[in-house]
Amino acid sequence: MIPVRFPLRAMTALFIVREDRVLLLWKPSGRVVRETWCPTAGGHIEPGEHDDPLACLLRELREETGLEADALSGLSFRYVTLRYVKDEMRENFYWFASLRDDADRGITSNEGRLEWFPCGRLKEISMPWTARAVLDHWFRIGRFTELSYAGTAVPEGAVFTPLEQF
After folding, report:
1. Strand ranges (E), 28-129
2. Weakest-pLDDT range from 3-17, 23-37, 40-54, 116-130
3. Domains identified in the chain, total number
4. Residue 1 lies in a domain
5. What is the C-alpha to C-alpha distance for residues 108 and 75, in angstroms, rounded to an integer?
6. Phi then psi dihedrals of residue 147, to 5 deg
7. Which of 71, 95, 110, 118 is the 20 to 30 A CA-CA neighbour of 63?
8. Domain that holds residue 41
9. How many CB atoms sit inside 10 A of residue 71's CB?
């Protein structure tokens, strides 16, 4: 059972995609994950950013890759996930985008090594739990819709529900 009081770890992440490939970051170390493939850019929501997670994402993109928002095309918020792990609630906001052609030359990250992966290879590589569930859902369903989804982590992956305003 989840206790009444728990710490909240809120984070953002960006997946850069091109057709059936995704640009992933090999992260050798970090505050939350170590030695695993992660979204292209992202990080912890800092005080004052929780009411604007996109600002956090763009700050992280700039800090980690040197890219600005105008280097992206089709930027869209697509997923928010919740997972209770290691005695904390983890809330992740996920965006997807493509790189503009003129921004695709020599992109690097100060967080680790960037590499393009075909969607068929994603099952072979190490990734954080919810990031894997989001990518799997996006390649199977999400990329064919304009919807955004809420996901709850479960032992099998995640349960996704379209987010609706009502």
Report:
1. 36-38, 41-44, 72-85, 88-99, 113-118
2. 23-37
3. 1
4. no
5. 19
6. -80, 155
7. 118
8. 8-162
9. 20
